[in-house]
Amino acid sequence: MSAGTLYDKVWELHRVAELPGGATQLFIGLHLIHEVTSPQAFSALEDLGLAVRHPERTVATVDHIVPTTSQARPFADPLAEEMLATLEANCAEHGITLHGLGSGRQGIVHVIAPELGLTQPGMTVACGDSHTSTHGAFGAIAFGIGTSQVRDVLASQSLAMGKLKVRRIWVDGQLQPGVYAKDLVLHVIRSLGVKGGVGYAYEFAGPAIDALSMEERMTLCNMAIEGGARCGYVNPDATTFAYLQGRPHAPSGEAWERAVAWWSSLASGPEAGFDDEVRFDAASIAPTVTWGITPGQGIGVDETVPTLEQTDPDERPLAEEAYRYMDLQPGAPIAGTPVDVCFIGSCTNGRLSDLQAAAAVAKGRHVAPGIKAFVVPGSEQVAAAAEAEGLDQVFIAAGFEWREPGCSMCLAMNPDRLEGRQISASSSNRNFKGRQGSATGRTLLMSPAMVAAAAIAGQVRDVRELLPA
Amino acid sequence: MSSPSFPMGPITGHHGRAVVVAGDDIDTDRIIPARFLKCVTFEALGPAVFADDRAELATAAAGPHPFDRPEHQGASILLVNRNFGCGSSREHAPQALMRWGIRAVVGESFAEIFFGNCLALGLPCLVADHTAMLAIQAAAGAEPQVPFHLDVAAATLTGPAGPWPLTLPDGPRQMLVTGQWDGTGQLLAHAAQLDRTRAALPYIGGF
User: Which terminus of chain B is more solvent-facing, meaning fewer CB atoms within 10 Å of its CB: N or C?
Assistant: First the structure.
């Protein structure tokens, strides 16, 4: 059993009561909501005659359904319009802050909460979205919940939870040029499997993690859930504090000093005990691409699609299903696979540094003929920062479309979607069957720089060949 | 909002015919594709469950999908394999299953968020080991008209053969059999403790 880890400390600080049946009631420090998983929770609250207990601890934005071409109201899609109007009405009725379109603060919920300084070390963070694990980058314990639990948090600012085990994922060495946090996490999931983290919180630690920026740590923790771990986190350090300082909701003045002292005290110390530990070497990781229908079906860009013989017997039925669905041949190189659509964005990789990395590849080059390539900034703030340094112009000159912020083609709840059997190079987080809006559409997950390289080449290409030596 | 036929109160067991949806890592995007999430109530989700898988299999040699086979209409126990319900946290997934008619799920393992969502709706998810699961699925496939009996309290499943021992952690089991699986009231009962915990957190008052 783990002891003395950040997870244990934060758990203990937020423990309200032990519930009959063995679950723990956990106080939730920050609750984030959006238009898809909250309307039924508000309806349930109304049916029960309950109020929102702490409206000041819930923050809302709109992200999943927003169009990325024109965001003029009403939306062309009446269902999307109804969802946003419902969120607006619920937030107004219950006194919840909504960062709406055009506010300057709208964006993907897992992008805006960090950039506003809402997400802080030592908090418990819940949101009706599985990628809430993102916020663990700050040393928060952050996890996705369903709509009934959204109702519970609204009503009580708490949740019934079972305590997880803690696995330390120790990463030695340094990522090589052209290899990013996305590649690291795809490598971890490839190695431990999509079920490997079930029952665990992942603590990411070691020299390679220490060297990551906050945005890279967010990419890493974002996909902990794709490895089955409901939350992933990085211990807070000087990088965390430097990111937070000066943000709208971060403490300031003397409170800042007290906050840093408290945050520092929460990190897993040298005496911390873990349920288990897995080690990786960052230097050995190549740009990684998925070839199949789960995020665990990934390979280095210089590798070949695994054959059945190279596949664990337990995983063979899924591999066979993936060969059929993806129409990729076992034993064939993944490099050179033609793509139709290139998507840069999402809560995994829609932040400024992601766009900078992709723009560095796109600059002075052009998208291959016949390829649809588009960039969707993660938030209005990301868009403004990118435009301020001219990244939008770099992308447009290279033949990419520059869009408005939202979740977009990560899950295709808005008009951005694959058509028919199209295959995408995507900086998002899931390559499930049908994920990007076509029941037969196909997804290759990779880093934003690799997506840019695929757009230029019209096929999967090792981005390291396009970077300055 | 739950439909009138949704479970209420203690859930000690379930009796009904079974339907097998075989395969590992069946994610919630497959259970209910994202386009069906454009709604402000869960009411219309039942017919859309497994929509894309069902459309794909409608014309395939291996088809139709189990949910479209005549012998499985009215089935209420879903038999699955490993890591069922992985991916998105959408509660629309168990809602869609329940609105189709599913009232219990037995599988080799479940994704955590999905398991919790099911529990909150009174949809028990019990675990069988690999060998038992294959035997259960074979029995259900051979005699789809024969009902199974799931005993939640004892964690056993009996059908054309069996009984098979299942597992369900004590916490969820207690919550189901005592009818405390829908826990908002429980959470609100601890108002004083909630305030104490909140007040002790330095970030609440801005440090």
Answer: N
Provide CB contacts within 8 A for B134, sequence distance 6+.
Answer: none
Cα separation, B19 vs A397, in Å, equals 54
Mean pLDDT score of chain A, rounded to an integer?
97
pLDDT tens column, A57-75 = 999 999 999 999 999 999 9
| Domain at A6-161, CATH class | alpha beta
Note the pTM of the prediction, 2 decimals.
0.97
Confidence of residue B1 (pLDDT cuts 50, 70, 90): very low
Task: Match domain A288-463 to its CATH number in 3.30.499.10, 3.40.50.720, 1.25.40.20, 3.40.50.300.
Answer: 3.30.499.10
Question: Rounded to an integer, what is the distance from CA A26 to the centroid of its chain?
Answer: 23
**pLDDT tens across B76-121, in order?**
999 999 999 999 999 999 999 999 999 999 999 999 999 999 999 9
**Beta-carbon contacts of residue B97 (< 8 Å; ≥ 6 apart):** B31, B49, B78, B105, B123
Best residue of B39, B92, B97, B113 to probe chain A, by most A CBs closer than 10 Å:
B113
pLDDT tens track for A346-390: 999 999 999 999 999 999 999 999 999 999 999 999 999 999 999
| Residue A338 per-residue DSSP state | B
Extents of the domains making up chain A: 6-161, 165-284, 288-463
Q: Which fold has domain B13-181?
A: Aconitase; domain 4 (3.20.19)
DSSP code at position A424: E
Instruction: Show me where the domains of chain B are located.
Output: 13-181
Contact residues, chain B, for A48 at CB < 8 Å: 184
ipTM of the complex: 0.95
Helix (H, G, I), strand (E, B) or coil at B175: helix
Cβ–Cβ gap B190/A17 under 8 Å: yes
Cis peptide before B64 (omega within 30 of 0): yes
